[in-house]
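Hi R.,

Here's the chain you asked about this morning:
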Amino acid sequence: MRLMKKAGCRLFCVGFESGDQQVLDNIKKATNLVTIRQFVRDARRAHILIHGCFMVGNRGETSQTLQTTLHFALTLNPDTAQFYPIMVYPGTSDYAYFQQKGWIVTGNFREWLTPEGLHSSVVSNPELSYGYLVDFCDKARRAFYLRPRYILGKVWQMLVRPTEAHRIIKAALTFIGYLLAPSKKRETTA
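And here is the predicted structure, written out as tokens:
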């Protein structure tokens, strides 16, 4: 990682996906929570930023594993984080799994995108509906980004890394816009 930093690497975008080991095993992530924590420590020592991605609604997901994932994200404290409902694609094992369960709510690919052109999850199971997952992601973003520790860390980062100030301010303005207009809660129908 130090060599990567010397070569100009600024940030890793990492698909952590879940903070629950059983969920990681269910999706065949081939990693574990101990390795993830060590990776984050190593990246910090090399002064490489981390954007952590967390995908919810995976096989075996429950409301408890969602909370475990949020706690894990807060504990890892990556530079930035993204929380989003699972998106499955035809031809993948997840698509076949969710289709067999009857949890793919539409075959109309036009409904796989939001009106803004963003990906829209079409998975909705009885325990964790699409609306529930979207709500969780909205709450997780707020919990992650509105922590006083996080905000003070960003102010400090702008002071010690002035080259990051523009990116941080732009991201903050985007997030404020998001807070004013949270995700639309909609259920897709077949």
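One quick note: Strands lie at 11-17, 49-56, 80-85.

Cheers,
M.
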